[in-house]
């Protein structure tokens, strides 16, 4: 038996364990920085398998690093495990929360970390058996949904000393994530005014809510004068207590996204200038609180090419009649326009991509192709600014089912998600093996990384005094 076939056979044997772990995390969903269950489950599984586990890291109780082997190259595998609030759902094609208003794994992170763990276990198996030199590090990364976990870890130097990093994300298509993503600033603007009776003494009041509204109006005018791919999102988190009281305190929460970090910083400063003007107009005081920030994602084409080769070697997930029936039922719960939008994003027909499940390994497609910019943001971007990074996506939900939906929760807790996860564990393991055994590939990835970054050192986008939340 060759090393490669040994990896595949080993993971076939470990499938019951991996499915059990993914189900367990799916049944115990916790939101960012609160993922005690998943972090403990994954880290203890790796520790029992012989990995050296360091926890906590970067001052985050639910972040950890598990390492096996010694020497170079050093290959990292990312794992995520946070859920989303309010999306609890049973494995059902009807909206049926397990418990209303509680979290659910609507982005498939119950699968994401477990696939990485499976590949790490497979690598240890063959490295030990065949005397393969190198180091494997699995990173337990919390709070991706808030774009914070990996950024705090990056600031603490957790990703230093790596030669390459591999990761993935549950989606619809079995393909490469070869596109970039949006850099982002998440921040809150709090205005402080003066309360007064809104009818009998309005002249005594200074409305903090007026400042929030004026900032929103000014930002709407600003949108015309920023790069076309940028996005500014806003909600009002606090607006006062009653109409007859001039609001003494009001707050808005903004996201600024753009294709490059430098663009985000420029737009962010302009939004702050709008807010400063609103504070001046309303005679209020303004406070700025940075919540989160991240870089854009830099895909490494040298690693991506090997990922695609290995995805094809493994072969796409095999979905049976029961999977296809459940997928069709879930697909029928989403508007037909959503299905068409997804096909447009991938630039393929339903016959070409597979309907209701993707049953092929595809070349780079649609908005995921190299040179494109995904409109979403991810803290994987910060890792990719430190070390050459490769990323793929796999079919874990039906055509038209969006991430962050109850339908995604149902699919990621079903055999559809588990089969996608198993396909990924094999693809990541084979790619990591190629990196361990090919100094030329590692060097090519490094040289490409140096060209892409221009040799610039990573600068963490969050303030040095911003600390991870504690629970």
Description:
There is one protein chain. With 471 residues, this protein is α/β, with parallel strands linked by helices. The protein has two domains: 3-181 and 296-453, Zn peptidases (Aminopeptidase), CATH 3.40.630.10; 183-294, Alpha-Beta Plaits, CATH 3.30.70.360. 41% of the residues lie in helices and 17% in strands. The chain contains 14 helices and eleven strands. Strands 1-2-4-3-5-11-6 form a seven-stranded mixed sheet, with helices on both faces. Strands 8-9-7-10 form a four-stranded antiparallel sheet, covered by helices on one side. Helix 3 (109-130) links the parallel strand 3 and strand 4. Helix 1 (3-27) packs antiparallel against helix 3, helix 5 (208-222) crosses helix 6 (261-282) and helix 7 (301-314) packs across helix 13 (415-437). It is globular. The termini are far apart. The mean pLDDT is 97.
The amount of beta strand, in percent, is 15-25%
Tally of helical runs = 14
How many individual β-strands? 11
Proportion in helices: 40-55%
CATH class division of the largest domain = Alpha Beta
> How many domains?
2
User: Structural class from helices and strands?
Assistant: alpha/beta
Largest sheet: 7 strands, mixed
Would you identify the CATH H-level superfamily of the largest domain? Zn peptidases
Rg, Cα atoms, Å: 23 Å
Do you know the CATH architecture of the largest domain? Answer: 3-Layer(aba) Sandwich
What is the string of SSEs from the N terminus onward? HHEEEHEHEEEHEEHEHHHHHEHHH
Major beta sheet, strand line-up = 1-2-4-3-5-11-6
Q: What general form does the structure show?
A: globular
CATH topology of the largest domain: Aminopeptidase
